[in-house]
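Internal ticket - ligand job 188, zinc ion:
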Amino acid sequence: MRIRLDQIGDQPYTWNQTLEIPALEQEGQVLSRLSPVVWRGEIRRVVSDFLLHAHLSYEQTSTCSRCLGPAVSSVEETLELLIKIEEEAVEKEDDEEVEIELTQDDMGLLSLTSAEFDVEPLLIEQLQLNIPMRPLCRPDCRGLCPQCGTDLNQAACECGRREVDPRWAGLAALKNRLPDGPGGTADD
Ligand SMILES: [Zn+2]
Ligand SMILES: [Zn+2]
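stdout (structure tokens):
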């Protein structure tokens, strides 16, 4: 969706879309599923600049970092940005394709090199930023047993029971070193 900012007058430009976007990838975190993204917003003129106010909502599915099961999360996000068009860009505008460069700083300021604004890269960028770094299927996911691979949310395994209580680990090690210990094993 390309918006001609220079054609926005007293009335803000508004949109309300539901977009199908292929699942994305960001720094090794992959989404296995991305619901249609409901995305609405407006851009209004503020003196010589433009103010973008948008809201997006969708559901994303990634892989739980503990149990490798699906981790579903809903995202509701409001976006506010001040858009500036750089002066030289306005003069160059008659050139056929003016490269649109998205440079967004932390203060929510977006500088454009053209009066034509494609909002989709901005949306994609937000979706990527919202991919969780360490997704969890639920906050208390118990994960997989590191020894036998059992999903500890579904079933218990025997591995944990044989684990030495950390408080006794030092004592067990000491016992193992004694020449007349019972066979060198800490338990049994
Ligand atoms: Zn999990
Ligand atoms: Zn186990």
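Auto-summary: The radius of gyration is 27 Å. Residues 166-177 form the longest helix (12 residues).
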